[in-house]
Amino acid sequence: MAKITRRDFIRMSSVLGLSTALPALSGCSAADDEFEGKVLIIGAGAAGMSAGYLLAQRGIDFEILEANTVYGGRFRVNKTFTDFPIPLGAEWLHVEPEMLDEIINDETVEHDIELISYSPEKDVDAHYEDGEYSEEPSQDGDIKFIGSSWFDFYDEYIVPSIREKIRYNIEIVDIDYSGNQVQLTDKNGNGYTADKVVISIPMKILQDGDVAFTPALPQGKQDALDEAVIWSGFKGFFEFSERFFPSALSFADSGTTDGQRLFYDASHGQQGDKHILGVFSVGAQAERYQAMSDEQFKASVLGELDEVFDGIASQTYIKHMSQNWNNEPFARAAYLADSSPRWISDEMATSVDNKLYFAGTSYTSFWDWSSVHTAARSAREAVDELTGQDNLLAFTAFITFLTAR
After folding, report:
1. CA angle, 39 then 71 then 362, to 5°
2. 255-287 pLDDT tens trace
3. What is the DSSP annotation of 12-43?
4. Which of 52, 250, 276, 386 could in theory staple to 162 by disulfide, Cβ–Cβ 3.0 to 4.6 A?
5. Helix, strand, coil percentages, rounded to 5, for the chain
């Protein structure tokens, strides 16, 4: 039996248009659902906002409790560094553009989000290792936003229908699901009651034990939390007076079981005239940057670029900035390691006692995790189960077909 890896599946999904494999839920109302109680969603990141949006479409009572002062989770955008939005967190669309329509889930709504793919005719992937530099036409299947970002997409199309349902500065520290209803307690001792709860708290927060559960979570979930490797996350951006770098530049440590690192043209497809190089790193590669001072980080990146491009980086450097996701109190990391076994995300996606449902980038019952589209799909899966809907049959059948081959 031939095996397919997670990355194989992502590529196959993109080619086969799997982003449209899930049936649309437009037109569903509370009358269509078996559940009509109160739902509390913990976390206003991609999964939490998607879950609230779907519940709003179905006419179900809900609130989103967010620990931070703003919504967005690991969405964050800087709009002052240069003349186009810089995504400090989630940046690329990893599947077909129809994914945006799937998230909007309403055939009457047409979005005006502009996207751009990488082209083998125009874009170059380069690799530098042991003093050798090589180039080849880009094979990158990811898609960039033009003049916007994942945050802007959610802000325009998802947030308006849930804005009044988000409550901020509420950090949940205790979840008691021993009774007929679920009782939540925040760090200030305030209580909240719901019939069902969607938990979209980052996996690192649960792993650190910041939330107590009564009764304790099932052993399978505790095992998943104990064994999960959650990668650190760090991004940086450098402005240069000219573009001397390719679309992407990889190194010997750009794709390992311990992490990833990549330099890339953050200006790709943008309509501004600035030359911005992005530095993406997760796992051990991110931790190396996190251990540096800002000046050391700058010197490290410029030093590598100078070695590859004969000193031009230092000559054309203008400014830089960075985002350390480990320092964000309600994130503390990037995401579940790509090298993780599938059973961890699968286990974390399972509901508990028909009261607790899990949605997020690390709580997925399919082959992919750690991206915005997987967070949105996990939210749909949780809401489908919570409301008694069963709209994932086509998706499940497709997965069964693939894994059986």
Report:
1. 70
2. 999 999 999 999 999 988 999 999 999 999 999
3. HHHHHTGGG-SPP-TT--GGG-S--SEEEEE-
4. 52
5. 30, 25, 40
Mean pLDDT value of segment 316-330: 98
pLDDT class of 367 with cuts at 50, 70, 90? confident
Residue burial 96-115, b: 16+ Cβ < 10 Å; e: rest: beebbbbbbbbeeeeeebee
Residue 105 zone, left/alpha/beta (φ > 0; ψ -120 to 50; rest)? left
Specify the CATH number of the domain 1-113+148-228+341-405: 3.50.50.60
Q: Is 178 helix (H, G, I), strand (E, B) or coil?
A: coil
Range with the poorest average pLDDT among 16-20, 179-183, 190-194: 16-20
Give the pLDDT of residue 272: 86
From the options 3.90.660.10, 3.90.226.10, 3.30.70.1350, 3.30.70.380, give the CATH code of 118-146+229-339: 3.90.660.10
Instruction: Give every CB contact of residue 379 below 8 A, 6+ residues apart in sequence.
Output: 46, 47, 48, 50, 51, 54, 198, 200, 359
User: Quick one: which of 142, 138, 116 has its CA closest to 270?
Assistant: 116
- The confidence score (pLDDT) of residue 390 equals 56
Residue 391: is its pLDDT beyond 80? no
- DSSP one-letter string for 290-342: HTS-HHHHHHHHHHHHHHHTTTHHHHHEEEEEEEEGGG-TTT-S-EE-TTS-H
What is the pTM assigned to this prediction?
0.89
DSSP assignment letter at 131: T
Distance CA 211, CA 301 (A): 38
Confidence class for position 366, pLDDT limits 50, 70, 90: confident
Domain ranges of the chain: 1-113+148-228+341-405, 118-146+229-339
CA 378 centroid distance within chain = 11
Joined tokens for residue 25: 């839920």
175 against 30, higher pLDDT:
175
Identical fold, 1-113+148-228+341-405 and 118-146+229-339: no
> CA-CA distance, 200 to 43, in Å (whole number)?
5
Packing angle, helices 219-227 and 342-349, rounded to 10: 140
